[in-house]
Every structure is written in structure tokens, then in C-alpha cells.
User: What shape does this take?
Amino acid sequence: MNLSNLESIAYSGPELILMGAAMLIFLADLVVRSKEHLGSIALFGCAFALLAAVGLRMPFSEKWLIHGLFGWGEGWLYSRMVVVDDFAVFFKIIFCLAAFATIWMSLGSNEVRGVNEGEYYGLVLASTVGMLYMASAANLLMAYLSLEFVSLTSYVLTGYLRHNRRSGEAALKYLIYGGVASGTMIYGMSWIYGAAGSLDYAYINAALAQGTVNPLAIFIAVLLILAGFGYKIASVPFHMWAPDVYTGAPIPVTAFLSVGSKAAGFAILIRLFYPGLSQTVAGGGWQFLGGVEWPQLMLVVCMVTMTLGNFAALNQQNVKRLLAYSSIAHAGYTLMGFVVLNDEGLRAMLFYLVTYYLMNLGAFLVVMVVVNSTGREDIEGFRGLAWRGGAVPAVAMAIFLFSLAGLPPLAGFIGKFYLFAAVVKAQFYMLALVGLANSLVAFYYYARIVRTMFLDMPDGTEGVVTLDAHNACLLYFLALPTIVLGVYWAPVIDLADRSVHFFVG
Assistant: This one.
């Protein structure tokens, strides 16, 4: 259905709730002397936005009050600029959960606590709103505006520690790289508009299907747009910003960028290529229009991204920087599902993003716990962690790292299993071999941290690590599903399977 602008408001519950919470935080920051409740407002905003997102598409929402408050179904919003469908709702849920976990982390972070908290929490919520619209963008203009909004808020969050030279340097580098990627992307969009006569994905698809568009123009346009999207997911060759930004930003911000921002980049990439530039074929497959075989190009990007990320991580001594290169490698793993170009590959991508959310946020949470107690981010700061008061964080970190490496019986293993199964079924054997080799390389640097935590004895200079109840709650919240999804993953894979549906009518 095609809703009017007024009717569209009922389907914008998550966005409206987050924007309302952000405005309330900004206002309270100005007029209320005590700042201790600002984080709680942000948490409640994320929780209610999550409920609103679930209520958009889940059948049981008809039985709850939320159905009376917000719209239910799927359709075009705001003059076809935004679409609500299973795919969009899946990512909205991920973004709300990522924002909730980030704010919870921030409340327990020594870096963030007491430093302009109103601005900080408001910006996290505002950035999440941009991510929600990235997942729902059905028009290149909306895709650009939402991506830029997320980028602008991310620049500010990265440089949030104003008196920290490293944070300011990271923000400046992020801004420069982002500006170049943004300019390249909008130039590519202008090419598509000139070739197809529209910025609407559906109309672009129709023009390509009719064969009236110059294939060379589309090739150049999409190549330029990929620069912007590739920058968001930190794929090679648009990854250069990630190590410095992840290292310089406050740890909760780094975690947020590594999960929320990356998932938003994949959402906008999939939305453009699947409904926009391709059409469905028999057997749940997809076929690109315009005469360009994009999977071959993405195959190369995928292999180079995972290889560079893993080998660059081998010699890193700073754990945040190591996880930055690991994040680049995982962008390559996730792209494996995109290369396959069918519903099975897309389902594997969605499931892997859920597992990645748990693993990566958990790893950064443990880093934050160690930094809170010792002020050290290097691997030596983790020496003997299990024997100096940090047994629970050490065990949790081992779970997260082994899951990132893809070891059974953890969530990361199941995620990689579905990705590799889709790749092998589609007969991309070389990609499967490269992915397997990279997983072995990754295991080495993950195991190095685990060995340092358990087998290297502390020399007395590292300091005692304490885990307070606040951070422990989030640690268990992330660690337990990482274990459970390794043995019982059916509900999440079923949700991913239902979410491989795009509203194009």
C-alpha cells in the first residue's frame, strides 16, 4: 500500500520515539541540574522503540496495545521515500538493540561518565534514527540523507572526548574519509538519475528491465555509489579510516560503530542491489539487470577484504586496533552471502549479523572493563586477567573471541556454517577455500589474547580488574546468547528467513 504522509506517521513509531527521547534529553540537559537520569531516559527510549519496531510486522502485535498505537503491515511511506517490510523491521530491531547495549555500556564507562552526557546520549539516539531510515530507504535521495545523518553524528561521537588528542585526530580522519566517500557516492547517484530518470529504486529497476539504460552509465554509477557504501561497512579499499577511528573513539562509540553502523551499511547495500538493480528468478535466486555481473566484482572485494583484515590484525598490540582489523575481516565474511546472490545467501548474511552483534559488542565490553580498571588497551594489559580478579571477564572474552573465530559450539560457528554452506551450494569453491584459510589465520590472533589472559602469569604491574554489577549484567546478556545460539539457533534463522522479503508492490 502507498500511504499518505499523514498516514505514514503511524508507521514511524521507532523513529518518533527515539527522536522524542533525544529531544527530551537535550532539553533536560539544558534545564535540569542533575545529569544522572539522562542515560536512563535514553535506555527507556531504546526499549520502547524496540517494542514499536517489533509491533510493525509481528503477527502477535494485533493482540497488544502497541497495535493500536502504531501501524501494522507493509507499504510505502512519505511519497515512496521509505518502505516498511520484513527486511527493514529486522534491521530496525538490530539497531535498537545495538543502541540499547551501547548506552548501557556508556553508563558503566569511565571515559563517558560525567562528560557532556546529554549531548552524548542524544547523539547516540539520533544516529540510531538515521540507521533506521537507512534500512527503510527506498529512494537514493533518502539513502544518501540517512547515511549522511549517521555519518555526521558518528563524527561528533568519535571526537566526543574533546581534550583527548587521539579522539580528535580520529574524528578528523573519519570526517575526511567520509567526506570523500560521500562526494563520490552522490556523484554516482547523479549518474543513475541521469540514466534512469528517477531516484526511486522501483523505477530504476523498471528502467533497467526495459533495457533503455546505458549499461556503461549504470556500471560507473554503481561503482561510485559502492565507494560510499563500502566506506560504511569498512570493506577494502574503503577501510582505511576504521583502525584509527576504532582506536581513538571512546570504547562504547567504537562498539556502536562496529555493530550498528556496519549493519546499516549492509542494509543499505542489500536494499539497493536486490530490489533496486536485480530481479528474482526461479529457485529463490536473483539476477542483476543492466548487463553487469556485480557478483564477480564483489567476489574480489570479499576475498581481499577478509584477507587484508586478518593479516593486518596479526601484529597488532592494541586490542581495540586488533578488533578494528577483525571487523574489516568480518565485513568480508558477511559479503560472502551477498556474492551468492540468492535468498539463502541473504538469509546467512542476516543471521551472521545477529551473531556478530553479540560477539563484537561483548568483546568491546570486556576491553572497556579492563580499561576502566587498569587504563590499558594493549594485549599486555590482559596478561593473567583470569588470575587478577577478572575470571568472569576473561572467560567471557574467550567465548566472544572463539565465537568470532568460528569455533563450535558457539554462535559464530553457526553463522559461518550458513555462509559457507550457501557459498559451496552456489559452487563458489575458491571463495570457500579463501574464507576457510582466513578463519585459520584469525584463530591465531584471537587465541593469542586468550593465551595471554589464562596462561601468562601477571607480573604485578597490570593492576586488579573489577567487574561491577552493571557491566556484569550486559556481559551475561551478550555471552549467554552467544553460547545458546551455538546449540539452538532455529528461532533466529527462522526470523532471518522471514526477513528475506522485500516489499516492491
User: Anything to note?
Assistant: The longest strand covers residues 278-281. Residues 165 and 308 are 28 Å apart (CA to CA). The chain is about 70% helix and 5% strand.
